[in-house]
Amino acid sequence: MKIFRLLVLLAALSLAAAGCGGDEEVPADAVAVVDGEEISRAEYDKLLTQARKGYENRKQEFPAAGSQEFQTLKNQAVQFLVQRVQFAQQAEELDIGVTEKQVDERLKQIQKQYFGGDQKKYEKQLADQGLTEAQVKRDLRNQIVSEKIFAKVTSEVKVTDAEIEKHYEEKKATQYSQPESRDVRHILVKTKAKADDIAAQLEAGADFAALAKKFSEDTGSKATGGKLTITKGQTVPAFDKKAFSLKKNEISEPVKTQFGYHIIQALGDVKPAKVTPLKDVQDAIKQELQQTKKNEAMTEWIEELKEEYDDKISYAVGFNPPPEPTTTGATTTTEE
Questions:
Q1: Average model confidence (pLDDT) for the chain?
Q2: How would CATH label the architecture of 177-266?
Q3: Nearest-angstrom CA–CA distance, 23 and 25
Q4: What is the pLDDT of residues 29-48, one digit of tens each?
Q5: Rounded CA separation 164/274 (Å)
Q6: With the CA atoms of 317, 322, 324 and 328 taken in that order, what torsion angle do they form, in degrees rounded to the nearest 10?
Q7: Which residue from 34, 219, 221, 232 has the fewest beta carbons nearer than 10 Å?
């Protein structure tokens, strides 16, 4: 698995576009300056080299310089580097640190998970991706920093019992309920005449499963003798109504639907609808709500970060991010 592919890293970390502007002069060998810290052209070139390797490995043509696709890739690379610096600076302010031991442990975990602990396979993957171990460790350090920032920013997120109960009540009818169900079998044919003929054979004692296997047009159930487990409302109305109104073991007359003519037999009683009790799902609901709240808290933090850095980032010519889309309202005026 190409765990170190550049675009995966970009997708994982490109959470927000950085601001543009600033008063600092960007050195000739840099693509940007973030609150006094330079991002070198060499770092940018390394990212593009990795991206190029990724395209080669996927046997895809690398975007031509000047194309929209290349510009998008270029912007992603620059914003990835900008945000990496921002996160590192914010980690210091939040008193977040990452030790060499933590990085080494994460690397061992990846080597074991994706390469079975095989050093040669791991080294081959690095070569295929155009990476050095130093680059991998730097990416892992940044990943751990991001995780620690997320944990710190969201540390005070709480979910109350009232919120859990409210979510449960709102979703109970759709997410935590199972409608009535029933085991049935059917034979589907195209014409009324054929359906009447089969119905007559069944009334005379013919084997339902054998006739289904021989004549049914329903390829999904034919091999099992027409057997289906259906839930209320799952099938077309005419079929649904008849299937749930039959007595156990009763065989219907031919039922017409848009698919043809069905002969249905109820194999068991109707199983009543079920509602999963709150106690069985409250932990899952709590986790879901917590994750939603944490994501919202992180999004808010990112927005505040953008504002904080709005005048602290300068870009070299040609490396400015594209302007963010704005919504403008149309106004109609009448001239007299």
A1: 89
A2: Roll (3.10)
A3: 7
A4: 999 999 999 999 999 999 99
A5: 20
A6: 100
A7: 219
Q: How far apart are CA 10 and CA 57, in angstroms?
A: 18
Q: CA-CA distances (angstroms) from residue 68 to 7, 64, 285?
A: 17, 9, 42
Residues 6+ apart with CB under 8 A from 212: 185, 186, 187, 221, 222, 225, 226
Q: Write out pLDDT tens, residues 60-75.
A: 999 999 999 999 999 9
- Low-confidence stretches of the chain (pLDDT < 50) are 1-23, 328-336
Helix (H, G, I), strand (E, B) or coil at 60: coil
CA distances from 72 to 17, 156, 310 (A): 12, 36, 21
Global pTM?
0.68
Whether residue 18 contacts residue 306, with contact meaning beta carbons closer than 8 Å, is answered with: yes
The CATH number of 6-157+286-315 is which of 1.10.4030.10, 1.10.10.10, 3.30.1490.20, 3.40.50.11320?
Answer: 1.10.4030.10
As separate numbers, helices (DSSP H) first and strands (DSSP E) second, the chain gives 11, 9
Q: Which amino acid is at 42?
A: A
**R_g of the chain computed on alpha carbons:** 31
Q: Where are the beta strands (DSSP E) in the chain?
A: 30-34, 37-40, 177-178, 181-189, 227-231, 255-257, 260-266, 274-275, 313-315
pLDDT of residue 325: 63
